[in-house]
Amino acid sequence: MVSVLCYRFTDSKHEDKPMRSLIAIFLSFLFTFSLGFARKVEDWSYERLFKEADLVMIGSVEGWGSTKAQWPEKIFDKVRFDGEKTAFHPRSLLKGEPAFPCTWVLHFSYKKGAAPYEDGPNLVSFLKKPVIIEVKAKEEGKAKELKPKQVSKSLASPPEYLLFLKMRKDGLYEPVSGHLDAVFSVRAIFPSDVIKAP
Question: What is the tens place of the pLDDT at every residue in 150-164?
Fold first, then answer.
């Protein structure tokens, strides 16, 4: 519709400037309006993660289960999320005292069938089965793609995780960056023998 209106006014020298001004104002309003609804994401540097965490460790997944914990963040509808807990065996301790033999970490996922939010939470999930990473070359001049692929247990080890955690009152741990941006508190560490270059 805007293009039709512009075409109609371009024949008239007097009405061309007001129409351009109107379009410019409308577009700047849309841009400002859309920025108002964008979710702010905090900056979580390694220094901040380490400083604010009660426990920093490298661990491997030992078990998992569901929990009745509800979505604790103030934004987003809690009925769309399921609480999960994953048990980690500590492999290396960088800060704090982990629970032995396992440290349980509370995290959330979308319920089955729930539509993910656009610009929603950055949820974390943990690979529970062995994986292998294939590096596939793309067309010349484009970046190479890392693609995880499920394989049998005998071919590759599951990843370990670098975890930045804080302790809850109930004894479970949770991501120090909160559940809204939990991915910032977790780094997957893959063994070098699972990477096969083309």
Answer: 443 335 577 899 999
Integer Cα distance of 154 and 138 in angstroms: 29
Strand 81-95 relative to strand 103-110: parallel, antiparallel, unpaired? antiparallel
Nearest to 64 by CA among 153, 129, 128: 128
**Which residues, including other chains, have CB under 8 Å from residue 95's CB and lie 6 or more apart?**
50, 53, 54, 55, 56, 57
Q: Which residues of 113-124 are buried (b: 16+ CB within 10 A; e: fewer)?
A: eeeeeeeebebb
**Element of type H or E holding 49:** helix 46-52
Query: Do 111 and 186 meet the contact criterion of CB atoms below 8 Å apart?
Result: no
pTM of the model: 0.69
Distance CA 183, CA 161 (A): 11
Q: What is the rounded distance in angstroms from the CA atom of residue 179 to the CA atom of residue 98?
A: 20
Contact 151, 130 (CB under 8 A): yes
Model pLDDT for residues 144-195, shown as the tens digit of each residue: 555 555 443 335 577 899 999 999 999 899 999 999 999 999 999 887 766 6
